[in-house]
Amino acid sequence: MTGDRPTFLFDGDCAFCSSCAGFIERHIPTRAAVLPWQRVDLDALGVSQQQVDESVQWIDAAGVASGPDAIARLLRDAGSFWRPLGVVLGAPPVRWLAWPVYRWISRHRDLMPGGTAACALPAADRH
Fold it and tell me: Are 46 and 64 in contact (CB under 8 A)?
């Protein structure tokens, strides 16, 4: 958390992730500080290098959420019509389906719109 604000961390070295973060900043009125993990003190936020390598992170007073759970919390925080989307995303069975989809996108983010070769994960992480 940065002060009293929640924090949403993404991979700032990935063009696809940065494009998604830009969309969030332009269109989703969250209270969170949307930051690349490369520019923060991970220890101070209570997250590990492994966590941020694997997925986006939401950090607030209630704790840490990762991947689609983090996105669900961000959407709920935004309120308005975003809140119901976050509730649906965070509820079973949608949540159970969201994780495999998130992992697939994460492993293939270099192929997503705005993605570049620099977004590719190491081959060992792409099975």
Answer: yes
- Who contacts 71 (Cβ-Cβ below 8 Å, separation ≥6)? 56, 58, 86, 89
Please calculate the CA angle 91-94-95 and round it to the nearest 5 degrees: 65
Every domain of the chain and the residues it spans: 7-119
**Separation of alpha carbons 12 and 4, rounded Å:** 23
Tell me if residue 89 falls in helix, strand or coil: helix
What b/e string do you get for 23-43 counting C-beta neighbours within 10 Å, with b at 16 or more? ebeeebebebebbbbeebebe
- Reading the block at residue 2, the tokens are 């940065």
Summarised one tens digit per residue, pLDDT across range 17-33 is 999 999 999 999 999 99
Tell me the whole-structure pTM to 2 decimals. 0.89
